[in-house]
C-alpha cells in the first residue's frame, strides 16, 4: 500500500509543505482558493492524515479504555454503544475489556489500558472488587476516570448512577399491589453499592404497606444466571415457597425462573418474578419478565461526555455525579389474569 504524504501533495502542486500544512490546519493566512485546491488534490490522491503524528502533536493517544464486568447481560454492551457514539464523534478510538466478574482480571485490564496510553477510562467494577486503592491513586495523579453502574462510594471521582433505590421500591410495590405478600429478594453482591440501594427500596416498600420482612426473605445471591439457579433450588428444597421474587438483576431472576418452571411451578400463578436491568433475554423468555429499564445507552453517553470534559479541561474540571431515571416494564411474569366471576 502506498501512503500519500503532505510532501507528495506539495510536490504535485509545486508549493511548500508549510502551505499544505496551513490548509490542513485551517489557518487564516492562506487564500481560500489555494486551500480548496490543496484539499481537493489531497482527496484525489487518497491522502489520509498520519494518526500517530496527530497524536504526538496533541500529546494524546485519542484512545479511551472501557472496562465492564461481563458481556452476557445486554446492559453493558448497550452502555458501550452509547459511549462510542460520543467518543467516535469526538475523534476517539475505544479499547474494550471485560473482567469476567473478577477483581484481579479487572486490575490487569486497567493496567493494560494504562500501558496502551489511553487518555482515560470508563469502568464498571466487578462484583468481587473490594480494594479500590489503585483507582484512588490513579485519580489522585490526575488520570481521568469515570465510574458507572457499579461504583464505590468512597472514591472521589465522577460517577454515572441509576436511581436504584427508587426503582427497587416501585418494583417491590408493584408486586405488593398485585396481592403478593410473601416476597423474597435475591440480593446482589455486598461489595457493590447498588445492592444495598435495591435492598433498601425493597425494605421500604414493605414498610410503607406495613408488611414485615423476615431474614429468610433476603437471600444472598449474586448477579449471574447460575446464582439464581442455585438459590432457587435451595428455596425449593427448604419447602418454604414465596409468593413472589424480586431479583437484584435480570440474569439471577431468569436463572431462578428456569428452576421453578422445571420443578413444575407456574409463573406467575404459583410464584411471580420481577427483575432489574431490562435485559433482552428477559423480554423474550416465557413468560416475559417484568423488569426495571435502565437507560443503558444514556449512561454510556453521559460517561463519555464527562470523561472528555475532564480530558480537555484538566485544570478546571470538578468530579460530577449524575443520577439517571428509568421505568418499570410490567409483563406476564408478575401479573395474574383477573378472575372471571
Automatic annotation (TrEMBL):
InterPro entries: HTH_LacI, Lambda_DNA-bd_dom_sf, Peripla_BP/Lac1_sug-bd_dom, Peripla_BP_I. GO terms for molecular function: DNA-binding transcription factor activity; transcription cis-regulatory region binding. Pfam families: LacI, Peripla_BP_1. This is LacI family transcriptional regulator. Residues 4-58 form the HTH lacI-type domain. It comes from the Bacteria. Keywords: DNA-binding, Transcription, Transcription regulation. CDD domains: HTH_LacI (cd01392), PBP1_LacI_sugar_binding-like (cd06267).
Amino acid at each position: 500500500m502506498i501512503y500519500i504524504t503532505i510532501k507528495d501533495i506539495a510536490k504535485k502542486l509545486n508549493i511548500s509543505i508549510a502551505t499544505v500544512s496551513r490548509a490542513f490546519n485551517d489557518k487564516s493566512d492562506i487564500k481560500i482558493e489555494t486551500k480548496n485546491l490543496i484539499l481537493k488534490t489531497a482527496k484525489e490522491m487518497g491522502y489520509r492524515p498520519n494518526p500517530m503524528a496527530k497524536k504526538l502533536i496533541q500529546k494524546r493517544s485519542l484512545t479511551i479504555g472501557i472496562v465492564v464486568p461481563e458481556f452476557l447481560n445486554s446492559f453493558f454492551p448497550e452502555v458501550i454503544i452509547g459511549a462510542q457514539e460520543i467518543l467516535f464523534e469526538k475523534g476517539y478510538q475505544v479499547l474494550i475489556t471485560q473482567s469476567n466478574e473478577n477483581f484481579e482480571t479487572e486490575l490487569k485490564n486497567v493496567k493494560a489500558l494504562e500501558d496502551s496510553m489511553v487518555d482515560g477510562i470508563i469502568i464498571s467494577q466487578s462484583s468481587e472488587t473490594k480494594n479500590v486503592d489503585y483507582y484512588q491513586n490513579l485519580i489522585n495523579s490526575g488520570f481521568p476516570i469515570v465510574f458507572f453502574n457499579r461504583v464505590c462510594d468512597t472514591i472521589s471521582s465522577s460517577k454515572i448512577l441509576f436511581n436504584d433505590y427508587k426503582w427497587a421500591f416501585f418494583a417491590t410495590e408493584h408486586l405488593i399491589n398485585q396481592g403478593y405478600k410473601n416476597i423474597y429478594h435475591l440480593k446482589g453482591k455486598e461489595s457493590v453499592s447498588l445492592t444495598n440501594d435495591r435492598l433498601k427500596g425493597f425494605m421500604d416498600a414493605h414498610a410503607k404497606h406495613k408488611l414485615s420482612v423476615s431474614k429468610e426473605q433476603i437471600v444472598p445471591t449474586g448477579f449471574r444466571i447460575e446464582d439464581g439457579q442455585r438459590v432457587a433450588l435451595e428455596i425449593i428444597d427448604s419447602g418454604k415457597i414465596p409468593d413472589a421474587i424480586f431479583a437484584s438483576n435480570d440474569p439471577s431472576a431468569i436463572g431462578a425462573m428456569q428452576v421453578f418452571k422445571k420443578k413444575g411451578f407456574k409463573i406467575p400463578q404459583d410464584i411471580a418474578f420481577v427483575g432489574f436491568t431490562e435485559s433482552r433475554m428477559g423480554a423474550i423468555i416465557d413468560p416475559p419478565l417484568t423488569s426495571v429499564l435502565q437507560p443503558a445507552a444514556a449512561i454510556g453517553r453521559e460517561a463519555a461526555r464527562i470523561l472528555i470534559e475532564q480530558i480537555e479541561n484538566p485544570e478546571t474540571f470538578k468530579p460530577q455525579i449524575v443520577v439517571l431515571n428509568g421505568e418499570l416494564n410490567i409483563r406476564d411474569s408478575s401479573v395474574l389474569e383477573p378472575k372471571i366471576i
